Amino acid sequence: MLSDAHTKPDFDLDGLIDRLPKVELHVHLEGTLEPELAFRLAARNGVVLPFTTVDEMRARYDFADLQAFLDIYYAACSVLVTREDFRELTLDYLRRADADHVRHVEPFFDPQTHTDRGISIGDVIGGILDGLADGEREFGITSGLILSFLRHLPAEAASATLADAEPWLDRIVAVGLDSSEVGYPPEPFAAVFAAARARGLRAVAHAGEEADASLVARTLDCLGVSRIDHGVRAADDPAVMRRLAEDGVTLTACPLSNLRLRVVPALARSTIGTLLGAGVAVTINSDDPAYFGGYIGENYRRIVAALGFGAADVARLATNAINGSFASADRKRELLAELAGVAGGAAGAE
Ligand code: HPA
Ligand code: ZN
Hints:
TIM Barrel; 49% helix; globular; binds zinc ion
């Protein structure tokens, strides 16, 4: 994956990454909860966190696997109580995204993590939409919100959540599926995904993070998704890779997440280069940046350095994110023009 620009020793790849107009397609708003905000909200809401300081909370971020992370992630969500909390969480993320030159984002939220604690779904969605509107006004970042179901809970609970969210569905762009992957297959969620698609929503789902390539294929078979979240283990099966490339399925890879959750032992072992080389529309994202050591810019810098990518590869990744987003055709054209302005001939629009 060495492109021409990479062979020029003085080419400023980090400068290109900084200036790149970024589209983020895989970020969990709950995973952007920095310890400082968690402690501030805990004090405001009278919630006791199982840590005494910000440093102690961060020191616990040494995860053996996805489940070890999810246990802490769900526990920290207890500080999110009011509509204003969800607005601040969202705006805090957008402030960091703006510093990384993110221009459009399609964040996930997990309503069941909050409604199961007695928080009203209207406060959750209302607060997030308030934050997204504030962020668009303040930073010009456009967005499309993704309502994600928890796969460790029954499919009936997902259907009930979709029904509860009905008043806001015209302001939600897609449904997603996340949480524990191994042991929680996609097939039971086929009906709720079909109902969401019939209602005009797009669909995405996590697959191929911890589970193998066959789960990516099964997810494509049963959920009607336009994107696979993570999907990096698809590289283990050439037939699955070919299918992703031929069907134009976007993969939302998250390099630092894979490193911190031990999906790969080192970034140099990431399959992102293999997938890109096979013609799969891979994108770079941050997943749960407050927990995994970096926002989207850091994910770009670290994977580009580890895999020896050049300017054309960087432009390809950014182009894939624009084309794979659910933004309007006009917005995509704007973003592609911005990208061409920054990456010049390295950016090839579709
Ligand atoms: N995988 C699955 N579910 C999640 C993740 C993840 O990385 N982050 C938040 N929910
Ligand atoms: Zn994720």
